[in-house]
Design goal:
The chain is mainly β and about 325 residues long. About 15% of the residues lie in helices and about 40% in strands.
């Protein structure tokens, strides 16, 4: 689907956009319209039009308008990325997969979701998961977005950049930059998430077939901490075991998260903001907190806010999936 520009925002008061891993991201703009801009902005409609954001001449975000608010002297627009459409799509063809890489299953789900009415999308496979499993989907059962999120629980990562959906394995470890204490002059927060620790996972798949997989066990340091989950879309034991290993990789050892919170990354940092894409990694080195961190961590969230006070770039990182084990 292509179209013409409905309106440009000449007086942007606030801009906020984010990118997230394995889910739908959002954006928001606040505009003080004047002259012809006011008239053209009155034509903006949810799901009919897209919000497109550029930063320093580089394209960074795009997605359908979800809500528009017209107030006295201002217009506020909220949008979601291209994955928003898949939360409003269902399966259009009954299909069963046997011993199929999760990447291929995800790609089929996306293509099937957009097949009846494509808003203009592409899929880029960065790397295969190397996890093969059985899955079955029935026409008009479940939302496509939910099916994708289920796959992301079992070894697949995905994210959206503009109209492109990127598919990659959980242990993708390619670095796009480095951050040190000098790059974060206001400091950061290092958090050890003990509530998420599990040394053994049990995944139950299709109940009728008695599908089950497990990974891990008692640890000499932590002892035994077990978690059980149901993933009814999993149809074979090997896929359930792979799902258990995937979950174990993100919960053992204790997950360590680094969050810049409300901290602005220094403009002098060796970081190209458009390249901050969830699923890729940053090398983080910090000694300012009591918990020293020097390791490669995966980007799981990016938020950029610009208003009258300047620009804030926030990055949230976490262990690199299965490789953390």
């Amino acid at each position: 689907m292509t179209g013409v520009v409905v309106s440009t925002a000449d007086t942007l008061v606030e801009v906020e956009w984010n990118r997230v891993l394995d889910d739908t991201s959002g954006a928001r703009v606040l505009i003080h319209p004047d002259g012809d801009c006011c008239e053209t902005l009155s034509a903006v409609r949810s799901w009919r039009h897209k919000l497109v954001i550029w930063r320093d001449g580089k394209f960074v975000w795009e997605g359908p308008v979800l809500q528009a608010l017209w107030g006295l002297g201002e217009v506020e627009i909220f949008a979601g990325d291209i994955l928003s459409w898949l939360d409003r799509r269902t399966v259009h063809e009954t299909r069963a997969f046997t011993r199929t890489d999760l990447t291929d299953i995800a790609q089929w789900l996306i293509e099937d979701g957009f097949a009846p009415d494509d808003p203009g999308h592409s899929v880029q496979v960065i790397g295969r998961t190397r996890i093969r499993g059985d899955r079955a989907y029935t026409v008009d059962v479940g939302q496509t977005g939910d099916h994708l999120r289920d796959l992301a629980e079992t070894g697949l990562d995905y994210t959206a950049v503009g109209s492109t959906i990127l598919l990659l394995p959980e242990d993708h470890g390619v670095r796009v930059g480095t951050l040190t204490d000098a790059d974060m002059p206001e400091g950061l927060t290092v958090a050890e998430d003990g509530a998420s620790l599990a040394t053994r996972w049990v995944v139950h798949g299709d109940e009728d077939a008695g599908v089950k997989g497990e990974a891990g066990g008692r640890d000499d340091y932590y002892g035994l901490l077990e978690l059980v989950v149901e993933e009814t879309s999993i149809l074979d034991d090997s896929s359930a075991a792979a799902a258990a290993r995937s979950r174990l990789g993100t919960t053992y050892p204790v997950p360590l998260f680094v969050d810049t919170q409300e901290v602005t990354i220094s403009p002098e940092a060796n970081i190209d903001v458009p390249l901050l894409v969830p699923g890729w990694c940053l090398d983080i080195a910090s000694t300012r907190t009591c918990r020293t961190v020097t390791q490669r961590l995966k980007i799981i969230g990016v938020k950029v806010i610009e208003d009258g006070q300047g620009e804030k770039v926030q990055v949230q990182v976490a262990p690199v999936g299965a490789s953390a084990a």
